[in-house]
Amino acid sequence: MKKTLLSAFALLAGLSLFAQKPAGDPKGGISADMLRQISAAYQDSPVDKALRNALNAAPLSTLATSTGRISMIDTHFSDEVKTKGRTDQHSSGRCWLFTGLNVLRAKMIEEHNLGAFTFSQNYLFFYDQLEKANLFLQGIIDTRDLPMDDRKVDWLFANPLSDGGQFTGVSNLVMKYGVVPADVMPETYSANNTSAMSSQLKTKLREDGLRLRAAKPKELAAMKQQMLSEVYRILALCLGVPPTEFTWARYDAKGEFVSEKTYTPQSFYQEFIGKDLENNYIMVMNNPALPYGKVYEIDYDRHVYDGQNWVYVNLPIEKIKEMAIASIKDNTALYFSCDVGKFLDRKRGVADLANFDYESLLGVTFGMDKKERILTHASGSTHAMTLIAVDLKDGVPVKWMVENSWGTGSGYRGNIIMTDEWFNEYMFRLVVEKAYVPADVLALMDQKPTMLPAWDPMFAPEE
Predict the structure, then answer these.
(1) How many CA atoms lie within 13 A of 377 on its CB side?
(2) Cα-flanking dihedrals φ and ψ of residue 53, to 5°?
(3) Could you say which of 14, 268, 333, 397 is the most buried, measured as most Cβ atoms within 10 Å of its Cβ?
């Protein structure tokens, strides 16, 4: 009875506050009267005191964990791409590169009967950073007649270089520079921990950008080449010198010697992969904030100056799932990106909307849908992984699995399992081989793309 009376009193008190005339400052600030009414709305109940004590000692995510979801989710999948080994990007934003190479690795291992095999991420990362430096410097040359406060010029100086990226970086870099096995150009400390090297490169490039804007037109080409020579030196010191030729001994899945041969990075790619990455794939997006069936291009969203901007077709989620399922069923992994941090239980490696109940913990509601989250910057694609499995029940997907690049000790055996409901809400991008793309979707790619600006928040580099 006492508890009932207290609850009734609290309810009446709350209603009386709503009945009061708002005490806002006419200039839009928080007045003393408004603050009094706001603070009076907080009752500081025994439950609130208990929650406050708990939150002083534990993370929000721990206290919001739904006890009904603690047990491990079912790990059976009806269809799964054959893969071997897991990679680790460490403290770097190279998920896009690991993901793209992992897609190629899975196919190479299966087609050539290899054991666990990994391409050198460091080799392509070297050229990625060199190409991005050139992209920035040439961009500064192209815009040197614009004022410093022009939006594009400002964006270039704010983003001279990063270690993040997306699939066109993989396709352009691989087709231009080839690939090498991991032991030919191993990871270095700076490859695994990119922040210090990146900071120095960005500072140097910004300084170089100012010099280019002040230079005479006839001096620009020679100056840019000298600047790139300095960038090359920094990369060589931090990452090593990329090989132009190497000898590789091939062993099969049983560990038995097959052959030994000398390759260039380009000849190695042609012998073991051989596909035209720039023309064999399309990129699709599920972005309900933009019209479906339309093709978009993102300005400066490329890694190579003379390469391709990211071009994609925006599609309903169900259409994307159809292509993903067809690819997985044919043992072909896909480049996949999402808002990985939302509702992810990192320890178990499970992404599920029911993992955490922040509404009950905090006493508020979170009601935005996917479109509203995109428009308000509450959600966007943050991380790329390799889509390798789907679990179908009567032809309908109930969960999916991606191979991650956070090491074998993370998540579920280095993977993340996603419920189909989570997939609907936080999956954004997929790269699909054209063999698995319906004719009507391929036809959409004939449209002239709508150009979107480089600073569109939906297209920040995946890290």
Answers:
(1) 4
(2) -60, -45
(3) 333
In which band, very low, low, confident or very high, does the pLDDT at 1 lie, cut at 50, 70 and 90? very low
What percent of the chain is modeled with pLDDT above 70?
Answer: 93
Catalytic residue among 95, 172, 303, 355: 95
User: Encoding tokens for residue 122?
Assistant: 């460091």
**Residues linked to residue 257 through DSSP beta bridges, in sequence order:** 251
Name the catalytic one among 102, 286, 404, 415.
404
Radius of gyration of the chain, Cα coordinates, nearest whole angstrom: 26
The residues, any chain, with a CB within 8 Å of residue 262's CB and separated by 6 or more, are: 245, 246, 247
- Does the active-site annotation cover 95? yes
- Condensed to tens digits (0 to 9), the pLDDT of residues 373-424 reads 999 999 999 999 999 999 999 999 999 999 999 999 999 999 999 999 999 9
Tell me, what's the pLDDT at 72?
56
Would residue 338 show up in a list of annotated catalytic residues for this protein?
no
SS3 sequence of 231-265? HHHHHHHHHCCCCCCEEEEEEECCCCEEEEEEECH
The position carrying tokens 């095999």 is: 117
The question of whether 76 is a catalytic residue gets the answer no
Domains of the chain plus CATH, in order, are 119-272 (3.90.70.10), 277-459 (3.90.70.10)
